[in-house]
Design a protein that fits this description.
Helix content is 46%, strand content 2%. The chain has 160 residues and is mostly helical. The chain starts with 23 loop residues before the first helix and ends with a helix.
């Protein structure tokens, strides 16, 4: 049986051609951590800077707090802070914690005849680990030097 080429819908791929994509929640978490690495911030400020829904970002901030990356205080005038130095938080750590390993049906609990002895499952697990290991080499502190991020945060600080 041959899988027809149209099975892989080009519209499902990113502009770079990748079929692996981080969940929106993980992407927002990484963005929030990047901003917090530059300065303590109100959650609302982070939402505004990245044009995110405040309620969605609130859930992301709760997740970041639960994992020990952020200290978030409630109340007027309280700002969120990184719970650890930015150089000690890696992108790999965040991705592993927030992304489910569900590259194939077997990871989603869908039964398969090859279950328990599948070379594909093992290969995908190795690929996922290699991906995450590559991200382990990227500390949060390395992501905050982008001219765009710097100008975005400076412009926002001038408005305060």
């Amino acid at each position: 049986m041959r899988i027809h080429d149209s099975y892989f819908d080009a519209e499902e791929r990113s502009p770079q051609g990748s079929v692996v994509k981080l969940q929106q929640r993980t992407e927002y978490a990484l963005r929030a951590l990047m901003l917090l690495a530059t300065n303590d911030r109100h959650a609302r400020e982070i939402a505004d800077l990245f044009e995110l829904s405040p309620s969605h970002l609130s859930k992301v901030m709760q997740t970041l707090t639960r994992h020990g990356w952020v200290n978030a205080s409630r109340g007027r005038g309280k700002k969120a802070t990184l719970a650890r130095p930015a150089k000690s938080i890696t992108v790999g750590e965040v991705v592993r914690a927030l992304e489910p390993l569900d590259l194939a049906d077997c990871y989603r609990g869908i039964s398969c005849r090859l279950e328990g002895d599948c070379a594909l499952e093992q290969a995908l697990a190795r690929a996922w680990e290699a991906f995450a290991c590559e991200l382990d080499d990227v500390a949060l502190s390395e992501l905050i030097h982008s001219p765009t991020l710097i100008s975005l945060t400076r412009a926002n600080e001038m408005l305060e």
